[in-house]
Amino acid sequence: MQDGLVAVVKQDCPTCVLTVPVLADLARTAGLTVYSQDDPAFPAEVAGRIYDGELDTSHRLGIEIVPTLIRFEAGREVDRTYGWDRAEWERVAGRTGLGADLPAMRPGCGAKNIEPGIIERLKIRHGETGLVARRVEIGGGEDEIEAMFDRGWSDGLPLVPPTEERVLRMLAGTARNPQEVVGLVPPDLVPATVEKIAINAVMAGCKPEYLPVVLAAVEAVLEEPFAMHGVLATTMYVGPVVVVNGPVRRQIGMNARGNALGQGNRANATIGRALQLVIRNIGGGRPQEVDRATIGNPGKYTYCFAEDEEGSCWEPLSVERGIAPGVSAVTVFAGYGLQGIVDQKSRDPESLARSFAESLKAVQNVKLAPACDALLVVVPEHERTFREAGWSKQRLLERLHQLTEIPGEDLMAGAKGIAEGGPPSLAGKTVAKYRPGGLMIVRAGGGAGMFSGIIAGWSASGPRGSSPVTKEVKP
Amino acid sequence: MTALLDPTSERSPTIRPRLARPDSIDGMTVGLLDISKPRGDVFLDRLDERLRARGIATKRYMKPTMTRPAPLALRQQIGTEVQLVIEGLAD
User: Fold this and answer.
1) Which among A304, A323, B28, B52 has the fewest CB atoms less than 10 Å away?
2) Average pLDDT rounded to a whole number, residues A450-454
3) Distance CA A18, CA A84 (A)
4) In this predicted model, what pLDDT tens digit does every residue of A387-400 receive, in sequence order?
5) Which residues of A touch B4 (CB under 8 A)?
6) How many domains are there within chain A?
């Protein structure tokens, strides 16, 4: 920049319009150079105005508010002010008596070069993104969506192209450094940076404000107790199921009510999908390779929902698992599918608990116990029965553990005419279907319908395999 | 022309050639690795019997759980003690 005074303004800003007489005065008498961000004809009173339509000068000068007045001396910026403040302008301009007819002070307006959608393009053009991922050039005649399928990045559904601009916008959703390593993703045990996770979140269709939830979910599955390698590699059905608690659910518009586990909510759908894409693309975990699932389950596209805390008499899952009330958190559970529990007649808690228990006993196979952990999704019309009877979640869990104990005779191979089952030594014993702590309860679903559900887990539940992990969602 | 950011680990897979099959296992020590899957021991016990009947030395190992890769110390131990490893992968 040449020595002297520089002002950056836009016609769309009333404070800039207010200062036009001062700009004209300084241009005429003090060699002020005026850059206009949005209108080549503004300010008409300044003959030598420069149109900064591409906003490169504004970007280089780091303008955040217009009007901004800067003084350069010996090629360096020595003073700056923004908005209209007569005393400040007089100091920067080294003059007195500026804008005598104007009010003493008026706040400025946001500069055009920092508007969302523009700042990203400017950073890309000026090589300031800080993004280190390899750039994959897609030819002009190539279809981006097809190109991504061809490269094996997709879970089978179309992806949003992760352009630099979209990834930058995604990264604005977190305060974390893009190069921070969140963990090592199996099976390749590759460091997952915030940037790489953001790229996959873009492809999954996430909004930037979902990114902290995606990051927490990735962190959670990479904790040792979750055993993500085994969850991926097993021939069984499971994949990570993500339950979201706390204020973030409503802030990002997650669905905890009607069809909570189904389709149709962008946050629910894309957060779970982003997690799966991270495993696929960063970790290298793909079906029929290290993912050895025999039939898998549709939740391996995405399986994420929020708990309906507002209507519940029970404490949220995250609070039960040690997170402070009012703090956002995700809990990951190695689970699959949904087994319905239809009970439209039970009106007392004991009857309903028995209904739940009989269904829970069928998980995996009626002949197998102990089986796996399970996440019980209790709908509002069922929760009401427990609430009205004063049953805490703990009381229901204790009762379910009792009611899911099975006589060993029923579990022996051959019993009930089924070859599957345990050894004859089970005779005379009682076997718990669920290990202590192996049942979790969340409340979700619409207001009408006595249709709760069981999300069953992995045979290798608990310390020898996968345990649920809860992580706080951090900005 | 559009530039997309690579969502992968950007690794080029390294392909390591398999060790050549030995012409004979005479004089070798064979590791038998139980990955802690049910009935893996039944399979490995039988192999153990048959190998010993042929005069082949064996050593038994066990992963703490089949749900995680073998711990590094166990991998190193196997690598230093035997020339061949047999493991039972499924139930």
Assistant:
1) B52
2) 98
3) 9
4) 999 999 999 999 99
5) 135-136, 138, 144, 147-148, 161-163
6) 2
